[in-house]
Write a structure and sequence with these properties.
The chain is mainly beta. The protein has a single domain, classed as Thrombin, subunit H. The protein contains no helices and 7 strands. The model has no long low-confidence stretch (mean pLDDT 90).
Length: 89
């Protein structure tokens, strides 16, 4: 029996995304996969925010004026974090 809690199918997808923290610091990171509910971003251990942290994110280089999305850290792994989409900012 699977312990998988996901509601959405993940699709491997790599792009650059700008993550903006609540103190307005910015990180440019790569995605690993995406789903209708969120995205996994690759981070270094010292960059990992704790579960529950709210950030804003914007895809870079694919769309003109890509929307800025509010996201929440819902999973932390050794190589990055899972972010849940909340809404457009």
């Amino acid at each position: 029996m699977s312990h998988e809690k996901r509601k959405h199918v993940r699709t491997p997808f790599t792009c650059r995304i700008k993550i903006i923290a609540s103190d307005n610091t910015e990180l440019s990171v790569k995605t690993r996969d995406i789903s209708d509910g969120g995205v996994f971003v690759v981070l270094e251990p010292e960059q990992m925010p704790p579960i529950g942290t709210l950030v804003r994110g914007q895809v870079q280089g694919l769309l003109d004026n890509a929307p800025i999305l509010q996201m929440e850290v819902v999973r932390v792994e050794s190589n990055g974090v899972g972010l849940k989409f909340l809404n457009e900012v």
